[in-house]
Amino acid sequence: MTHQFPALSPEQKKALSDIAQRIVAAGKGILAADESVGTMGNRLQRINVENTEENRRVFREILFSSDASINQNIGGVILFHETLYQKDSSGKPFPALIKEKGIVVGIKLDKGTSPLAGTNGETTIDGLDGLAERCAQYKKDGVDFGKWRAVLKITSTTPSQLAIQENANTLARYASICQQNGLVPIVEPEVLPDGDHDLQRCQYVTEKVLAAVYKALNDHHVYLEGTLLKPNMVTAGHACPKKYTPQDVAVATVTTLLRTVPAAVPGICFLSGGQSEEEASLNLNAMNQSPLPKPWKLTFSYGRALQASALAAWVGKSENKKAAQEAFRKRAQINSLACRGQYVVSGKTDAAATQSLFTASYTY
Amino acid sequence: MTHQHPALTAEQKKELSDIALRIVAPGKGILAADESVGSMAKRLNQIGVENTEENRRLYRQVLFSADSRVKKCIGGVIFFHETMYQKADDGTPFVQMIKDKGIVVGIKVRGVSDGFGGAESAWGCLDGLSERCAQYKKDGADFAKWRCVLKISDNTPSALAIMENANVLARYASICQQNGIVPIVEPEILPDGDHDLKRCQYVTEKVLAAVYKALSDHHVYLEGTLLKPNMVTPGHSCPTKYSPAENAMATVTALRRTVPPAVPGVTFLSGGQSEEEASINLNAINTCPLVRPWALTFSYGRALQASALSAWRGQRDNATAATEEFVKRAEVNGLAALGKYEGSGDDSGAAGQSLYVANHAY
Fold first, then answer.
1. Fewer CB within a 10 Å sphere, N or C end of chain B?
2. Looking at the complex, does the CB of residue A194 fall below 8 Å from at least one CB of chain B?
3. Which chain B residue lies closest to A154 (C-alpha atoms)?
């Protein structure tokens, strides 16, 4: 406890810090395109497209071959393992396609949930075995950041002390291993929106979870300036009868973060967790307009909330490629404005943008 | 863990938050005038003055008679128990004198430390703390201070010492808030030793991380607290010398990694630094290029009073001159808290020379 055995050299620290800063540079956020095969199945099924490797490749190509100006709004893209090794129709590997736009490539590193016996259906996350070797390989293959999603849920008896402790500890181990291999770890302790709890309850639980996460990161000697946080926004549960405004969400969320996230963390990239595209943008915007202090960047790491319209425009048809790209570009631009608190809602909203993307007990 | 049982009402939270913000308003810091009887003995001994209750009263009167200039730079004064109930020559209670200047009154609540199991100090005085806080609140105090001590040696601070001190600070903080008192949380890591700057930074980060986890566990309302840490510096007998900019970078980095932005202010202890050193270091902290989301100010004892004590020497005739010395130091530190102090010119030559090291080396 008393002597330091430095985990990283100053050069390693600088490299990690630089990567993190690039991802959350002003007005930029993350495209979470790391849906697992099963999850992509859900997406494609909604638009009646078969879940084949080629279809998954085609859709990701639509996103990644967007005009280079997308790099004004997107600082990083998270990939699933399969996607990292796919190529566009001209044979260019996806990482190269992304990197040549100046966007940082990331990879989903966790291997999903595993039950914690003796709890009320709570889980921990697998993926630590062989993680160092995988990170080293991914770094060689063009990746500069990783993502690991832990999951907690609110019920009358959860999250338990064990679930909070165990998930915080696993996140810290993952983060430490990433940094040893030159990858910036995105730390994602998602408190699910399932349930009928109110905003205050979500805030209370999120504060406890984040306090545990940052204590664990400190215990594991993780270099905070070379990490990013991907938390849930603080919202009421999906089945909560009481409705809250984006301003309510913003105040509750920023207050929670001020109480738990050290200023050394360069950026906080929210997950969209089933919010519609528009909701996710409005909430992020409200946070960035809030008069509360914000010593970290507040930005996005959206999956569904960046891709819903694009998917709906594509519906599996190659002639819709441009329309799909345009839909994606539009959401990216809106979220970029939301990062600066400058998103002004125009009169019309389209159906796909407001459609709730909530799936109960969401797992990848 | 999952359901909240709110410790404070919205009104209680607002009151605590308002008090804290008043203490660390821009350009303001704290006069730590809470020396125990034993500590005052050392101070008075150095200037050849007998340690009587009357002399202690006369000396505090010197400080508290400062004119309205201190309103701009002193946000709070920490009292020792005896002093809370003393009066000026004209019968005005000291507490009244301070409050009349718009300054918040605070009280040291931790008494003598009891050792446990040997070398490291631990807690005492939680018993009856709630009743004492309630009484102090009635008697005019709006904040309190509790000092825990840790030291760096080859095998300290131990995990136990860190955890135990963090826990007792959190209990103290919780009890204070229940009684409308803003707790100043002081986990001092002593400067004794020959360890270098990096070691102090490492230990400070570990200690502060434990403190804030304990405060979270104990449901303490951070916006209604203040932190009083050591600056990050090398040990007193460390052969390597560091510039104020290096100490500042190490200090601000350590705080950025551990102190949630919700904490309104960090009021550094001076811990044996000279008056000028303490001001120069505070100024460097406030000009550090990293983002600093809390007020960074002073809670100085010796570093605000040394000149005043030497000017006073126990003589009534010297009182005005002594008060003036105190006001001067208070104004200098007020500037340092804003990053606007340019140094006295005497030692800022070599000491002020920047030996800047990029922040990722910390």
1. N
2. no
3. B2
Q: Kindly provide the residue ranges of all beta strands, DSSP E only, lying in chain B, ordered along the sequence.
A: 29-33, 74-79, 104-108, 143-150, 182-189, 226-227, 265-268, 295-300
**Which pLDDT score, from 0 to 100, does residue A361 have?**
41
Given CB atoms, is A262 within the 8 Å cutoff of chain B? yes
**Which stretch of DSSP H or E encloses residue A145?**
strand A145-152
Q: Who's near B52: CB < 8 A, 6+ residues apart?
A: none
What's the full length of chain B, in residues? 362
Q: Given B1, B155, B360, which is nearest A2 (Cβ)?
A: B155
Q: What angle do CA B252, B258, B259 make, to 5 degrees?
A: 80
- Report pLDDT for A329: 98
**Radius of gyration over every alpha carbon of chain B, rounded to an integer in angstroms:** 20
Please identify which of the residues A188, A190, A277, A279 carries the catalytic annotation: A188
Find chain B residues with C-beta within 8 A of A164's C-beta: 1
Q: Give how far B200 is from chain A: nearest CA, Å.
A: 9
Residue B239 contacts by C-beta under 8 Å, 6 or more apart in sequence? Answer: B194
Q: Is A13 a catalytic residue?
A: no
C-beta of residue B54 within 8 angstroms of C-beta of residue B323: no
Q: Where are the domains of chain B?
A: 20-339
**Measured distance CA(B209)–CA(A287) in Å, rounded:** 26
Q: In whole angstroms, what is the distance from residue B301 CA to residue B311 CA?
A: 16
Up-side HSE of residue B122: CA atoms within 13 Å toward CB?
13
Instruction: Provide, as residue numbers in chain A, all residues whose Cβ is less than 8 Å from the Cβ of B152.
Output: 2
Which residues in chain B (273-302) have CB-CB distances under 8 A to chain A? 291-293
CB A309 within 8 A of CB A327: yes
As a whole number of angstroms, the distance between CA B5 and CA B301 comes to 38
Do the Cβ atoms of B259 and A212 come within 8 Å?
Answer: no
Distance CA B262, CA A260 (A): 8
Of A154, A158, A264, which has the smallest distance from its Cβ to B257's Cβ? A264
> Could you tell me the two tokens for B78?
């920490």
* Helices A304-314 and A321-339, axial angle in degrees (round to 10): 160
Is-cis flag, bond preceding B239, omega within 30? no
Contact A218 B253 (CB under 8 A): no
Given CA atoms B100, B102, B107, B108 in this order, what sign does their dihedral have? negative
Q: Which residues of A touch B356 (CB under 8 A)?
A: none
Nearest by CB to A160, from B1, B253, B259: name it.
Answer: B1
Task: Find out whether the peptide bond into A295 is cis, omega within 30 degrees of 0.
Answer: no
Select from B33, B14, B22 the least CA-distant residue to B107.
B33
Chain center to CA of B346: 26
Closest CA to A170 of A223, A222, A106: A222
Residues 322-361 of A with CB under 8 A from B: none
Considering chain A, what percentage of its residues have pLDDT values greater than 70?
95
Structural domains for chain A: 10-354 (3.20.20.70)
The reported pTM is: 0.92
Q: Do A1 and B258 lie within an 8 Å CB cutoff?
A: no
The predicted complex's ipTM stands at: 0.90
Domain B20-339 sits in CATH at 3.20.20.70
Alpha-carbon gap, residue B307 to B324, rounded angstroms: 9
Instruction: Give me the average pLDDT of each 10-residue run along chain B (362 residues).
Output: 87 97 98 96 95 98 97 98 97 98 95 40 71 97 97 96 96 98 97 96 98 98 98 96 96 98 98 94 97 98 96 97 98 98 64 54 78
Amino acid at B358: A
Residue in A105, A274, A66 with CA at minimum distance from that of residue A186: A105
User: Cβ of A212 under 8 Å from any chain B Cβ?
Assistant: yes
DSSP class of residue A201 equals H
